[in-house]
């Protein structure tokens, strides 16, 4: 189920679903399995289960530590590299080259100080709402706290000097 969905209708998007991604060098690649990103309080919970249940991973990231969120639609460049490297085997190389021009992927990258969190998805409108909600929470949590103001002192009236009695 690589679709994005709303956790509760009529409220802000707090959860999205898709496939996990991984980084090889500078390439983002989809991995087999399921991934869920959920906003819970001041943390972003990411649950990943790889294909066949071989590996499960739970990541909890403080929303205050999120640097940026990237939403990408693009080609899978590793298919182009694979196509050129196997071009000597005409059938196989051409298949990869055709797939490079036909297939498009959508993914979201949450940049954190540790490692990027990657989620490949299908429905872009749900992810935009989720990203907006995530960044709004980050702004709220990173906003400087307003200093407490001292209560205002009671207003005093100026005292006029007393008239000096004159003799006379």
Automatic annotation (TrEMBL):
The keyword Membrane applies. The chain crosses the membrane at residues 76-103. Keywords: Membrane, Transmembrane, Transmembrane helix. Residues 145-168 are annotated as: Disordered. Residues 145-158 have a biased composition (Low complexity). This is Uncharacterized protein.
